[in-house]
Specification:
The chain is of the alpha/beta class. The chain has one domain (about 1-150): Phosphoglycerate mutase-like (Rossmann fold). The chain is built from four helices and six strands. The protein has helices at about 25-40, 55-65, 80-90, 105-115; strands spanning about 1-10, 50, 70-75, 100-105, 130-135, 145-150. It has a six-stranded mixed beta sheet, with helices on both faces. α1 (about 25-40) packs across α2 (about 55-65) and α3 packs across α4. The longest helix has 16 residues, at about 25-40. The radius of gyration is 14 Å and the shape is globular.
């Protein structure tokens, strides 16, 4: 059994003149990122590997949600489409059982929808995460079961 957690970064500022990768989280985004971490702990989910976009807002989200956990920053996550994210996931070491990917929309949302279902899509707002389980090895991953979906707007 493999568990994939796909997390979209929490709410970030929109400051004119600030390069997109440099946008930090808002105060609400910081609170929501901490809530993500609390929720993952409550669900008993602890990733063996965290792959994160190097953008400031994704870094902050991962660091606030998972304080003290090692995080691998992968530049290919930034601006990646769902198929590119899936290729990255398929390269994960088979010893990893639970993988957390911290990224951006639309890629993160499309990845979740592509692996699970396209029915009744509630969207994927900032700070949302989805937990997907699969019996497939990472190298063959092409579908999974949506176990839960969480959004700070809903909780």
């Amino acid at each position: 059994m493999r568990t994939l957690i796909v997390l979209r970064h929490a709410k970030a500022v929109h400051t004119p003149g600030l390069a997109d990768p440099e946008r930090p989280l808002t105060e609400r985004g910081e609170r929501d990122a901490r809530r993500v971490g609390e929720t993952l702990v409550a669900l008993g989910l602890r990733p063996d590997l965290v792959l994160c976009s190097p953008a400031v807002r994704t870094r902050q989200t991962a660091e606030l949600a998972l304080p003290g956990e090692p995080i691998e920053f992968e530049r290919d996550i930034y601006e990646a489409y769902a198929d590119e994210l899936l290729t990255l996931i398929r390269g994960t070491d088979p010893r990893v059982r639970t993988l957390l990917l911290v990224g951006h929309n639309p890629g993160a949302h499309e990845l979740v929808m592509g692996l699970t279902t396209r029915d009744g899509d509630p969207g994927f707002p900032p700070g949302a995460f989805a937990v997907i389980e699969s019996d497939e090895e990472w190298a063959e991953l092409d579908a999974g079961r949506l176990v839960t979906r969480w959004s700070p707007k809903d909780h």
